[in-house]
Design a protein that fits this description.
The chain has nine helices and eleven strands. Strands 1, 2, 3, 4, 7, 8, 9, 10 and 11 form a nine-stranded mixed β-sheet that branches. A two-stranded antiparallel sheet has the order 5-6. Helix 1 packs across helix 6 and helix 4 packs across helix 5. Bound molecules: iron/sulfur cluster.
């Protein structure tokens, strides 16, 4: 059982650019795993493709570096097969909200009990800074000839309306705050999403960097205060209250200007998790996951007869 932050680090060389927000997110994940005292062998970190895709290499847990835009199917499959493990999926905004947008929407419908973290810098950093789906309209990156004329995706709103049940935003420069968000996300029963604003100083020095209007400071970011903003929808709320709260939450998700809110936007404690729904329809197999199913007896003989299946394959 690891209980020291160094137990969650690896010796693999890290070649992210100096000043990249990825470092803060990496540290926050390691700190959250340590604070929750999650054993290294009980956590799996999945990543997509991009600079952020290297993150599992630097965390001393199981790690799977998957393919572009497909991190969620891999991660959901692992959690459904073995509900006992802690699963974190992560990737860039281009990976998750460009090519991976369909999987993002489908994942919301399932509400598998895991956490998805998007490293959001508005560009495809690994491929030299092309505009990504979250780049604000009117911003020109180092790589592009003109300002971005497309509208940007709002990850917070998209996550809420597609069915994620814990939705938050953090900033890579506020590691303690982000660590606490990750702890809350992992502890939530259902699909959690954290949109992490981070700088890519190499290819996008107009957003979220020390040179930009959105420099990380009290002038440009503020923390949602739960005494004045209530993100939680529970069965104590009647239907009307739930709709009223949801309306306020969606309005808040559109606040992304000179003052950007960070913190928990939405937590729905009513919607059942995928595992609960699965248990409801497979009563005879309740709590028996594929990973815990015995496939051999004490003499290592297969406990399932698959000879018919093999015959079928051979005959084909
Ligand atoms: Fe970070 Fe951008 Fe460098 Fe990638 S290209 S490591 S996102 S600063």
């Amino acid at each position: 059982m690891a209980n020291n932050i160094s137990d969650y680090k690896t010796d693999i060389h890290n070649d992210w650019c100096a000043g990249c927000g990825d470092f803060g997110i990496l540290n926050s994940i390691q700190m959250a795993l340590c604070e929750l005292n999650i054993a290294n062998h009980n956590a799996v970190i999945f990543s997509g493709i991009g600079c952020s895709g290297k993150t599992p290499h630097f965390i001393n847990t199981y790690g799977i570096h998957t393919i572009h835009g497909r991190v969620l199917p891999f991660a959901q499959g692992a959690k459904i097969s073995n509900p006992q493990i802690t699963v974190i999926a992560l990737g860039g905004d281009g990976d998750g909200l460009g090519i991976g947008a369909g999987h993002f929407v489908a994942a919301g419908r399932r509400n598998v009990d895991m956490t998805y973290i998007i490293f959001n810098n508005g560009v495809y950093g690994l491929t030299k800074g092309q505009p990504s789906p979250t780049l604000s309209q009117g911003i020109k990156t180092k790589n592009s000839i003109n300002k971005n004329i497309n509208c940007s995706i709002n990850p917070i709103e998209l996550a809420i309306v597609t069915g994620f049940t814990f939705v938050a935003r953090g900033h890579s420069f506020d590691i303690q705050h982000l660590k606490n968000l990750i702890i809350s996300a992992i502890s939530h029963k259902g699909l959690s999403f954290i949109d992490v604003i981070q700088p890519c100083p190499t290819y996008n020095d107009d957003m979220h960097t020390v040179n930009s209007a959105n420099t990380f400071s009290s002038q440009s970011y503020y923390k949602l205060n739960q005494s004045t903003y209530d993100p939680i929808i529970s069965d104590r709320d009647n239907k009307l209250t739930q709709y009223e709260k949801l309306n306020k939450i969606l309005i808040k998700s559109h606040e992304f200007g000179h003052k950007i809110p960070i913190g928990v936007f939405y937590q729905n404690n009513i919607i059942s998790s995928y595992q609960d729904r699965l248990n409801d329809i497979t009563i005879s197999h309740k709590n028996i996951s594929p990973a815990s199913t015995k496939i051999s007896d004490s003499n290592h003989n297969p406990s399932t007869d698959i000879s018919n299946l093999i015959d079928e394959i051979i005959l084909k």
